[in-house]
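seq:
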Amino acid sequence: MTYTTATATATATAAARAAASGLRRRAAAGERAGGPRGSGDAGISTIEVVIIAPVLILFILVLVAFGQLADARGELDGAARDAARAGSLHGNQGKANNAARQTARADLQHICSGPITITHTNTRWAPGGVYTVQVSCRVRGLADLGLPITTTLSSEFASPLDPYRRFE
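struct:
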């Protein structure tokens, strides 16, 4: 082997090692052998994110709005229960109505976006009677998303009159 042939062989071996090392680096980085532009689908994940992200954000916002509606329903049920109980503890029907109205408004002050309607019905105002309250109001719900949709919810609850009270 001559000096020139040995040098050429060493140079070719070094070039082959460098090429193999470059291929390994590209493979580790996720590039194909044809180069970074050789695949034809470069940038597709960016387009997917641009299309899917707004849809996902809107879906999450709608879930939050319906969650607020469910929360408002629970609060309204609790306010009707509290109002009926507060009203049933009084011996006078006028005082009972005022107590029920104050209790319902205190419970719903952060839930309702409009006026709170409270109606009282009772079969008889005497021991063993039942004091019934129906509470209704408009809740925010989908209005937080900018949609002009108001939802009116109502709830009704009955509580027995206190049998040890004096009724007037």
